[in-house]
Amino acid sequence: MLKKEIQLAVEKGEMLPLMEEFYTIQGEGYYTGTAAYFIRIGGCDVGCHWCDVKESWNAELHPPTETDRIVDNAKKYAETVVITGGEPLSWNMEPLTSKLKAKNLRVHIETSGAYPLSGIWDWICLSPKKTKLPTETVYDAAHELKVIIHNKHDFLFAEEQAAKVNDKAILFLQPEWSKKEEMTPLIVDYVMNNPKWRVSLQTHKYLNIP
C-alpha cells in the first residue's frame, strides 16, 4: 500500500499502530485471573509520569497493521480480547471491534477515557488520569472504574471520579507499582472505611507473567 493509503486506512481505523499482542492472564480489576488475548495499540498523549509502557506513546514507532490480521491472530487463542494501549480510543475502534464481535469474541477495553467512546464493547475499564480527564461518553458507559493510587491526594481524585461515573460501575483502587509497599496498606484501610470500593492489584507482576 502507498503511504497515503496507509494513512487513510489508519484514520478510518481499518489499520492500527500495533505495538504488541499476546495471550496471558488478566492481572487487574474485575476480571483478574482470567485468560485473555491482549492487543496493545500504540499512541497516547495522556502522559502519565509513572506509565510502565511509555514505549507505547509514539504511534509512529509501531507498524500500521490491518485489523483483519489482528482479528485472525486473536481468534486463535481466547474467547476474551482486551484492547489496551497506549490510549486505544485515540483511534476509531469501530472496525476492529465489529470484526472481533463477528467472531463471537468478548471484547474488553482498558482506557483513560480521554477520547470519545468508539467501538462495540462487552466491558469497559475506565482508568482516569488527572492530566487528561475522561469524556462524558466513557463515564456513562464504563463498567469498571479503576483509579491508580500514587499518593494520598489520589484518594480525593478517586472520589471525584466516582461521582462522575455511572452508578453501575464497579469501583477499584489500585496501588501504583513503584509505590505499592507504601500505598497498599492505605488502600486497604480506605476500602474498609469506604466499602463501595474494592482493592485491585497488579497480580500479573506478582506472578511474573506478561
From TrEMBL:
Binding residues for S-adenosyl-L-methionine: W50, C51, D52, G86, S127, P128, K129
- Residue sites binding substrate per the record: I25, Q26, G27, R40, T84, P210
**Catalysed transformations (reactions):** 6-carboxy-5,6,7,8-tetrahydropterin + H(+) = 7-carboxy-7-carbaguanine + NH4(+)
Which residues does the record give as [4Fe-4S] cluster binding sites?
C44, C48, C51
Residues of the Radical SAM core domain:
31-210
Classification via Gene3D superfamilies: Aldolase class I
Q: Does the keyword tRNA-binding apply?
A: no
Question: Subunit info?
Answer: Homodimer.
Report what the protein is called.
Answer: 7-carboxy-7-deazaguanine synthase
Q: Which organism is it from?
A: Flavobacterium cerinum
